[in-house]
Amino acid sequence: MTKEQKRLIDQYRQSGMKYSEIARTIGLPETTVKSYCYRNPVTNPQPIPTGTVCPQCGKPIVSGKFRPRRFCSDACRNKYWLTHHEAAASRAGKKVICQHCGKPFTDYANRHRKYCSHPCYIAARYGGDQHE
Question: What is this structure's pTM?
Answer without folding.
Answer: 0.35
